[in-house]
């Protein structure tokens, strides 16, 4: 009996360890599994023989693994990872050839992942509290960021033939600290046009001066959303009414709050077609110099201090781009085709969302490191729970 216990003990321990590792993986990707089933068979129309074994959700699972495991650095390393039995079991994928991986970026349409991204964003919890949470619940910070591309990526237009780049246009749900929607384009593009193609109803868009376009203002209003957009301080305005500034607004830096008859001069077409509001905020830049932020909005009902606060949250999208490039490593492109880069960017955004959903807070470098060790089995369940508890204390 003693010999029998000795022989079966290690096997039982190995089985328990493997089960624990699978459980960790399931908990991380549980919100995603049901959504991935929708795209499982997408792109298989050409498979008349019915012998395809590598599907869309398999490819996306490998891309998610690429961002979670820092030892994976290329498409070839992903192919090699599929050779290991535990990888295949935990991801539910078959062994895949390098040729199948390369073909995938041509077969699988990245547009099918975009709805999955949006649904995952709906699962994230808001971080704001009090009157800010109520007033800024649908605050969506918008910006674009360039990712350097190789000169041979001819589709990625930018400055010249030697300087190629792709731009990720991101709608960031500032109240939750998560990406809500994204599209990819060549770096040489129009940011207002990119936002116009992504507009949704019920949003409060906050943007910098690169999006200051009367036509964009009109489009945002037409879809049933609102905006707070910074404009140049030399813009021509026709003041209808000066509003009083409350003490709270003054403390937030508001120095002027006016109702405008129209934007621009009488010699130009009134594209917006309705009165607007201008809130001027005195802000201090990083170099210590003072500057005026001219913020145009259609929200007459919002307190002026909340207008100033909403614009400050625009920086959240800038910080997220830093996370995406410097921590997740999304600036290293594993594919050179337009569809392949888009799939990689969507996978990076999905990883960020899964972390936010699992931890209940904005992803940080330390949390990301802890999750990597947790998935490897080098951080226990109790240690991971203690880390999450610490995050909740800091956000409360």
TrEMBL record:
Keywords: DNA recombination, DNA-binding, Transposition
InterPro entries: RNaseH-like_sf, Transpos_IS4, Transposase_11
SUPFAM superfamilies: Ribonuclease H-like (SSF53098)
UniProt-recorded Gene Ontology molecular function terms: DNA binding; transposase activity
Location of the Transposase IS4-like domain: 139-354
A Gene Ontology BP annotation from the UniProt entry: DNA transposition
Family: Belongs to the transposase 11 family.
Protein name (record): Transposase DDE domain-containing protein
Organism: Planctomicrobium piriforme
